Amino acid sequence: MTRDQWWLASLGRTVIWARLRVLDAGTAEVFDSDGNTLPYDSEDTARGMLLDAEFVELEGLDAEDALARGFALDQIAPPEAETDAQLRDRMVQSLGARA
Question: Model-level pTM?
Fold first, then answer.
Protein backbone atom coordinates (compact mmCIF):
# COMPACT_ATOMS: atom_id res chain seq x y z
CA MET A 1 0.00 0.00 0.00
CA THR A 2 1.37 3.40 -0.93
CA ARG A 3 1.29 6.40 1.41
CA ASP A 4 1.21 10.00 0.25
CA GLN A 5 2.64 12.92 2.18
CA TRP A 6 2.20 16.52 1.11
CA TRP A 7 5.08 18.96 1.42
CA LEU A 8 5.20 22.66 0.62
CA ALA A 9 7.56 25.53 0.14
CA SER A 10 6.55 29.16 0.03
CA LEU A 11 7.86 32.08 -1.94
CA GLY A 12 6.07 35.28 -0.98
CA ARG A 13 2.36 34.57 -1.42
CA THR A 14 2.96 31.50 -3.57
CA VAL A 15 2.84 27.94 -2.24
CA ILE A 16 4.70 25.25 -4.16
CA TRP A 17 3.57 21.69 -3.48
CA ALA A 18 5.37 18.36 -3.66
CA ARG A 19 3.86 14.92 -3.10
CA LEU A 20 6.08 12.32 -1.48
CA ARG A 21 4.78 8.82 -2.16
CA VAL A 22 6.19 5.91 -0.15
CA LEU A 23 5.89 2.69 -2.13
CA ASP A 24 5.37 -0.88 -0.89
CA ALA A 25 9.00 -1.80 -1.56
CA GLY A 26 10.20 0.92 0.83
CA THR A 27 11.33 3.16 -2.00
CA ALA A 28 9.83 6.60 -2.53
CA GLU A 29 9.06 9.06 -5.27
CA VAL A 30 8.44 12.78 -5.27
CA PHE A 31 6.03 14.38 -7.73
CA ASP A 32 7.20 17.97 -8.11
CA SER A 33 5.66 21.20 -9.35
CA ASP A 34 7.26 20.70 -12.79
CA GLY A 35 5.35 17.44 -13.23
CA ASN A 36 8.43 15.26 -12.72
CA THR A 37 8.34 12.06 -10.69
CA LEU A 38 11.71 11.67 -9.00
CA PRO A 39 12.62 8.21 -7.62
CA TYR A 40 14.47 7.70 -4.33
CA ASP A 41 15.87 4.60 -2.65
CA SER A 42 14.02 5.33 0.61
CA GLU A 43 11.56 7.64 2.32
CA ASP A 44 14.42 9.12 4.37
CA THR A 45 16.36 10.05 1.23
CA ALA A 46 13.29 11.69 -0.31
CA ARG A 47 12.51 13.58 2.91
CA GLY A 48 16.11 14.78 3.09
CA MET A 49 15.94 16.09 -0.47
CA LEU A 50 12.72 17.97 0.28
CA LEU A 51 14.16 19.45 3.47
CA ASP A 52 17.32 20.53 1.59
CA ALA A 53 15.06 22.30 -0.90
CA GLU A 54 13.37 24.13 2.03
CA PHE A 55 10.11 22.20 1.85
CA VAL A 56 8.20 21.36 5.04
CA GLU A 57 5.72 18.56 5.59
CA LEU A 58 2.15 19.87 5.72
CA GLU A 59 1.21 17.43 8.49
CA GLY A 60 3.90 18.88 10.77
CA LEU A 61 3.08 22.52 10.07
CA ASP A 62 1.37 24.40 12.88
CA ALA A 63 -0.50 27.71 12.74
CA GLU A 64 2.50 29.72 13.96
CA ASP A 65 4.84 28.20 11.37
CA ALA A 66 2.30 28.86 8.62
CA LEU A 67 1.95 32.51 9.65
CA ALA A 68 5.74 32.88 9.64
CA ARG A 69 5.63 31.66 6.03
CA GLY A 70 3.00 34.28 5.18
CA PHE A 71 -0.28 32.37 5.19
CA ALA A 72 -2.85 30.80 7.50
CA LEU A 73 -3.33 27.03 7.52
CA ASP A 74 -6.97 27.44 6.46
CA GLN A 75 -5.82 29.20 3.27
CA ILE A 76 -4.12 26.11 1.87
CA ALA A 77 -4.98 22.54 0.97
CA PRO A 78 -3.08 19.98 -1.07
CA PRO A 79 -4.08 20.01 -4.72
CA GLU A 80 -6.39 17.29 -6.01
CA ALA A 81 -6.84 15.80 -9.47
CA GLU A 82 -7.72 12.49 -11.08
CA THR A 83 -4.35 12.13 -12.81
CA ASP A 84 -0.80 13.37 -12.26
CA ALA A 85 -1.03 15.21 -15.59
CA GLN A 86 -3.97 17.22 -14.24
CA LEU A 87 -2.30 17.59 -10.85
CA ARG A 88 0.79 19.22 -12.38
CA ASP A 89 -1.13 22.42 -13.16
CA ARG A 90 -2.29 22.66 -9.53
CA MET A 91 1.08 22.22 -7.81
CA VAL A 92 1.70 25.98 -7.56
CA GLN A 93 -0.91 27.94 -5.62
CA SER A 94 -1.06 31.72 -5.55
CA LEU A 95 -2.65 33.08 -2.38
CA GLY A 96 -3.26 36.57 -3.76
CA ALA A 97 -2.62 39.79 -1.89
CA ARG A 98 -2.51 40.01 1.87
CA ALA A 99 -5.71 41.21 3.52
Answer: 0.91
